[in-house]
Amino acid sequence: MKKPPILIVDDEPDIREVLSITLTDAGYTVYTAESGASALEVFREINPPIVLTDIKMPGMDGIELLERIKDENPDAEVIMITGHGDMDVAIKSLQQDATDFITKPINDHAMEAALKKARERIEVREKMRRYTENLESMILEKSRELSSSPGQQLSAGNDRAALSETAVFDELPCFIAILNRQFYFTTANRWFKENFNGELETKRCYQICKQIDEPCKQCPAAATFGDGQPHEAKSDFTTVQGHQYPVLVWTSPLRNAEGIIHRVLIMATPFDRLTDLQDHLSSLGLMVGSVSHGLKGLLTGLDGGMYMLDSGLEKDDTSQAREGLQVVKSMTERIRNMVLDLLFYAKKRELKKQPVNVADFAEDVAEVVAAKLNWQHIKFDRDFQKASGEISVDPAMLRSALVNILENAMDACMTDKEKSPKITFRVETQNDQTLFEIKDNGIGMDEETLKNIFTLFFSSKGKQGTGLGLFIANKVVTEHNGEIRVDSKKGKGSTFTIKIPR
Amino acid sequence: MAKKILIIDDDPYTVKYLETLFQDNGYDTCSAADGVEGYDVLRAEQPDLITLDLEMPQEWGTRFYRKLSKDPEYKNLPIIVISGMPSSHLAIKKIVAHLSKPFDPKELLGIVRNTIG
């Protein structure tokens, strides 16, 4: 993607200079301003799509600059630079639609991430603009086809004609309506009617689309009536049910036989879907990246096991060969778990329940992680004394879930190795359920993390985590009609409790 | 006397693999689970070459590398990076080789032989 111009605003000359050099090197065209007021002047002249501004500046501060810029061009991407401890201000700026914020001292990666986000937002908007433009030409083409077909005398001045046009409009997956100069809709497509039911004749557009009684301040339809040009705007539509859709509205003039603009065609595309999809895709990309990374490690382990098996047989060293075989088994098991996780995420997988011996099952699960915990000097206590009898579970899925939690505990311990790390895995057969408890004395979690841990793609481990493990663990336990609970204190450790009914 | 190789990797299976591979081919080995432990083992065992994993939980291998390259006693010690990261991501310049996991054992042995005999 071609890199857009950037305006850098900071009252400190050193910072302006360093940022200019870095960003120019990165291929951006850079403009600078030393105050909010001069930034606004540059902004009006150049209209740069991205602005990078310090928050604390004498005179007009960054927040005010943000507001003024957004007033002039809501599409401008404004990235805020904050000092340490300015979190409240940073959050306030995000509420006012800043693209992102980065903290001082400025870390190149954080800046690049913020700029990437800005560029992606610009690109998505551009795609949507092209999409709606294509849509318009498609509609015009279809209308022409209709009007040229025999027996259907159509002209834009004819309301019966407009009704026929809705046959085409109805099939299009966006809101389409035609507005007259009194701001009443003369026609609307099916999608529109389904979301904003009716009373087209008695209510004006803003009453229908926004549930408000005053005309909108910046109305693209009014602008099109005024200058005969297409216009676009970002807006929020509120349906009668109270759902809010962020939409991109696109208007274009319709002329009657005399060439006078008497109607405006309005198209609106909800864009939360687009951005949602994009978020989902980038999360998926991240996940695939980290899964393939994990797979590389497991394949190396598999190679290792096979080598040890081979070389052990060659040297007549049975114990090494046996160890090699054990590694092969363990790696195969882990790869299997990983694939199962992915399949479980990718499509609904039916549980394959079978009766298993609780104590044996617990040992199997422990074996998967024991070697790694030992190598990392993490004490691993297995308490299976009260594990007895059988339960009916899908052993592969439940094992995968428990291993995910154990590996999480391991990561929590490794981040803070100072305090003799320890994980306890307790399994107990109770009256009508089996209890699995995994307790670590690692870094623990804060409330925010706790709230999100079972969410898909949430990870507190940055690139190390897929954000898949606990999501799947939760899903597996739920599908067994069981429950999963977590207690955690930052700095003290976490305890996961899983109960599977008989 | 056999040359000695220090293996630094957080994954016990990879360590076991490398130990067996090197020992089968006439080298002595020692190992560590992360860079911090790696430095202690380095001092105690005085190896002739190091294989270094990069993504390790407590601190990254790059940190160990930086520390080593500033240490006059060890800065010329040959390092082979064996990691799952593509080499283009690295700020590590002065290493003997970078092998991606899963690596080819013959290639690794060839590099080791060329470096320390």
What does this structure look like?
The complex is a heterodimer of chains A (about 500) and B (about 120). By secondary structure, chain A is an alpha/beta fold. Chain A folds into 4 domains: about 5-125, Rossmann fold, CATH 3.40.50; about 150-270, PAS domain (Beta-Lactamase, 2-Layer Sandwich); about 285-345; about 350-500, 2-Layer Sandwich (Heat Shock Protein 90). In chain A, about 50% of the residues lie in helices and about 20% in strands. Chain A has helices spanning about 15-25, 35-45, 60-70, 85-95, 110-150, 160-170, 190-195, 205-210, 220-225, 270-315, 320-345, 360-375, 395-415, 445-450, 470-480; strands at about 5-10, 30-35, 50-55, 75-80, 100-105, 175-180, 185-190, 230-240, 245-255, 260-270, 355, 380-385, 390-395, 420-430, 435-440, 485-490, 495-500. In chain A, the strands form 4 sheets. A 5-stranded parallel sheet of chain A has the order 2-1-3-4-5, sandwiched between helices. In chain A, strand 8 and strand 9 (about 245-255) form a beta hairpin. Mean pLDDT of chain A is about 80; it is low at about 150-165. By secondary structure, chain B is an alpha/beta fold. Chain B has one domain (about 5-115): Rossmann fold. Chain B has helices spanning about 10-25, 35-45, 60-70, 105-115, and strands spanning about 5-10, 30, 50, 80-85, 95-100. Chain B has a 5-stranded parallel sheet, with helices on both faces. In chain B, strand 1 (about 5-10), helix 1 and strand 2 (about 30) form a beta-alpha-beta unit. The longest helix of chain B has 13 residues, at about 10-25. Chain B is globular, with a radius of gyration of 13 Å. The model of chain B has no long low-confidence stretch (mean pLDDT about 85). The interface of A and B includes residues 307, 315, 372 and 415 of A.
